[in-house]
Amino acid sequence: MGGDFGPRVTLPAIFKFLSSQPDVDVRLYGAQDVLLPFVQKHKSLAARISVAFSQSDIAMSDKPSQVLRSKRDSSMAIGLRALSEGEVDAMVSAGNTGALMAMACTILGRLEGVDRPAIATTLPTRKGQCLLIDLGANLEATSRHLYSYAIMGSVLAALMTGRADPGIALLNVGEEPVKGSGVVQAAAEILANDKRLRFIGFVEGDGMFEGRADVVVCNGFVGNVALKTGEGVARLIVDSLSEYLKAHWYSRLLATMLMPSLRAWGKRFEPAIYNGAVLAGVNGCVVKSHGGASEAAFLNALNYAAMLTRLKLPARLQEALVDSDISSAT
Q1: CA–CA gap between residue 282 and residue 220 (Å, rounded)
Q2: Which terminus of the chain has fewer CB atoms gathered within 10 Å of its CB, N or C?
Q3: pTM (2 decimals)?
Q4: How much of the chain exceeds pLDDT 70, in percent?
């Protein structure tokens, strides 16, 4: 029910998801008058779809504290309880991010060693992609929090890339060892002393997109600003290029000649490809789709959740956290 477009986007994506993933079943949570017609329309898939009706929805403007008190019968809350009780293996939501994180922490609980779960997603870089963690779950973070983000980010990056030792960097105001706040300096010392992680030092914002690290760690305030800035610059470049190519007859002719190359170039940076952020550190597999996601983008979030479920993400994260002896970090 969540996101900017709600069932108009999520339900068609779910139909395509079921059609392409024959070994997966889906349970839908939401309003009866929305879900029943969808199931009735797709009778060929009805055996793989179950529904649970909710009495309330969570608006994108709702505060997490308000949601915890008054929206316990929402589709989001019912879905998280089903995940907590083992009725489903993963949950995907395009709804209110703050509400989803607050409810997930309350209903699912945290993994051992995690004080504050983080939000992680992949970004395109010159060399491929990197994982950015945290994107806004925690506006401030201690060095211990950044250490736990690095551990979880390393596991996620290894699962996605197949690399046994992904390079981890801290996002900072400079690459020199003396730069940064006391928190960032302390986190760097902890990471450098953990020989199970490949800590490569500090990276600046431009270095993040250069692909100098597989995992970039920061607090949620910095991570959210970096993510939204990157998205804004990408839109500016694409829109400006489009306006330029449409401005004159000769640029339109040039656009026609370059169109195959432009399409291939654009696909590399298509936001839909990177849709799906993990709530890393909660005791369950929860994927947050962008609220403004298209049908193709939401489908990618569903596929991402299925992949992480097959890879047993929560168990992998918990194993890494326990092995790191994170309790000794301050």
Answers
A1: 16
A2: C
A3: 0.89
A4: 96
Q: Which of 329, 233, 289 is nearest to 76 (CA)?
A: 289
SS3 269: coil
- What pLDDT digit, counting tens, does each position of 271-324 carry? 667 789 999 999 999 999 988 889 999 999 999 999 999 999 999 999 999 887
Give the 3-state secondary structure of 21-83.
CCCCCEEEEECHHHHHHHHHHCHHHHHHEEEEECCECCCCCCCHHHHHHHCCCEHHHHHHHHH
Q: What 3-state class would DSSP assign to 217?
A: strand
Measured between alpha carbons, how far is 101 from 243 in angstroms, rounded to an integer? 39
Measured CA to CA, the distance from residue 179 to residue 191 in angstroms comes to 16
* Contacts with 118 (C-beta within 8 Å, 6 or more apart), sequence order: 133, 134, 135, 137, 138, 145, 148, 149, 152, 220, 279, 280, 281
Paired sense of beta strands 118-125 and 128-133, if any? antiparallel
Task: Name the token pair of 46.
Answer: 């009805």
Residue 71 · residue 48 · CB < 8 Å: no
Cα(297)–Cα(289) distance, integer angstroms: 8
Concatenate the DSSP letters of all residues of 288-303 into one string.
EPPTT--HHHHHHHHH
pLDDT, tens digit, for every residue of 125-144? 888 889 999 998 888 999 99
Question: How many angstroms separate the CA atoms of 88 and 79, rounded?
Answer: 8
